[in-house]
Amino acid sequence: MNTTQTLEQLQQLRLNGMYQSYKSQMELPLDQQLEGHDLVAQLVQSEQLSRMNEKTAYYLKLAKLRLAASIDQIECSPARNLTKQQLGLLAEGRYIQQGENVLITGPTGCGKSFLACALGHQACLQGYKTTYLNMNRLIEKVTLSKLDGSYIKLLNHLEKQTLIILDDFGLQNLSQEIRLTLLQLLEDRYGKKSIIVTSQLPVAKWYEYINDPTLADAILDRLTANGHRIELKGESLRRKKTKTNQ
Question: Which phi-psi region, left, alpha or beta, contains residue 211 (left: φ > 0; alpha: ψ -120 to 50)?
């Protein structure tokens, strides 16, 4: 069997990583080409890396992160009230493995959503199914699903996500329907899967925001009992960026 036939078979079998690696090898001078076990090992490694990259790209597509952010873009400083140790701990992904939540609060423009999306990106890299929703989008989804009868399907879909990012919590008034959905969502995930919540409101004001003593107790108990809290500080990064560009 010649090289062309081998490459065609690799393509037919959808072994794209092996295909690219083998093609690259065949383009090298004969004295630089790998042979035997070394060649097989490289082809297998290339295929594994290719599949991991494809899986990551697929998870990122499904996650629909609002911002293209990554961990290495996050600024850690005393002024922001965020340390490299805190970020490093979250980047390891242990909070996801242990079904813990992350609560990110701070003023407008301080980078809450950016940090949440960076953690979401990191989760996709680590092979975790992730979904990004802001509160407006969640409210919209719940309302429509109640109308078309797909509410249980929506809950089942969200329950399957290893990580959910809930952005801009605290900006919209909550209906009883949304309060009950939040409680169900948290109940399904408690101790098993994680939620990242961002909010301009400090956690101490969430009880008042939920505005239902019984449900607020239940929701906050499940959110905060195993939650990592990050209180970002400092001036708006948007205004800072604008000043820099002027």
Answer: left
